[in-house]
Request: fold
Amino acid sequence: MLYDSLNHLSKSETFKNAVLKGIAPDKGLFFPRQIIPLKKKILNELSKLHIHEIAFEAIQQFIGNCIPKRKLKNIIEETLCFDFPLVKLDKDIYSLELFHGPTLAFKDVGARFMARCVEYFNEIENENITILVATSGDTGAAVADGFYNISGVNVVILYPKNKISIIQEKQMTTLGKNITALEVDGVFDDCQEMVKKAFLDPQIIQKIRLTSANSINVARWLPQMFYYFSGYVSASKFDLPINFSVPSGNFGNLCAGLIAKKLGLPINQFLACTNANDSVPRYLDSGIFQPNKTIQTISNAMDVGNPSNFIRIQKIFNNDIHKLKKNISGYSFSDSETKSHIKKTYKKSNYILDPHGAIGLLGLQKHSKIIQNETGIFLETAHPCKFSDIVESNINIKLDVPNKLNNIFKREKKSIKISNYSEVKEFLLKS
Ligand SMILES: *Cc1c(COP(=O)(O)O)cnc(C)c1O
Reply:
């Protein structure tokens, strides 16, 4: 399988090179040249297969010869080492809980898969690689955990000081070893800017092999299709059309769902749900893509003004907005709607939402006012305790932190304070 750059000026690459480069030299995102639907026999028997087998069938063509079958199966088993329960909230309304992984966020799936691919490529190549990421919280935590102790890989995470939750900060600053956290005196956009600068800095890229680990990277983006298969299999027994509501920021997650549909998974409709950063819902309304500056909200992992993966979504529909609109409906919600929905849902269904999942559920309920007799699944993308300050003040209870995180508050934070780009550069060059 070859990956083309969506800017069409760089040469095509194998899966391995697309992963190690992250982005094409012409700054285009990599996109698989072909997407071949799964065989009918497999699609008809999904409910008889284990999720590891389904995942292998789904992703195999995208890896090609870059990883031997045995090894790929191994990577999948280690990636999918936790469940994705489907929890009923109401008639035809379900939460697909994606937060049972090690850092309590859906990003664990992509991060664990990518880390193991990079580890394998390193074993055969033996050249150190540095993963450089900017984070508004969840990405840094999942990447730190996924790559912890992976040999030949250094991880450098830039996060905005005082702008992430306590759990998220502990998750990336207390591991040590090959994980370093840079605490930036600024906002997420400043971190992102510094990372972009480093990727273009000749002195840095001459000396260090850098790659990214956000959903731009195909090894983080594509495995996210696994839980759509899992959710579909769990819901197929209801025998109704199945819709997925996806709380979206950079749109990697929703885009992976569209790939699952391309592979033949009979998903009826996708709901693209956003906070005030509503570039995509506005596009679906007006037909004009006009990204805004990023707005800060309480669902901060979705604070993205100009979603990187939108271009991949357009590519999937050959830039035909009519086809796109047939498959995706857009909804956006304010912080006050999000907060009151967390409260309302707790009262009505005794279910605790996090602010991101709350937006997914809001979209689903709005959509099901128009359409009935379909199964609606919203993706609950993070455990509510990661956003305890917002959730607890809305429902007036103290949230339990899952056992696996109990020790985290005792571990010592280690970070390097950063106030400008040249300090990042100095750190990278001497490390
Ligand atoms: C990253 C993230 C999102 C947004 O996912 P995208 O793939 O960027 O659209 C939603 N919710 C949570 C909790 C996240 O961490």
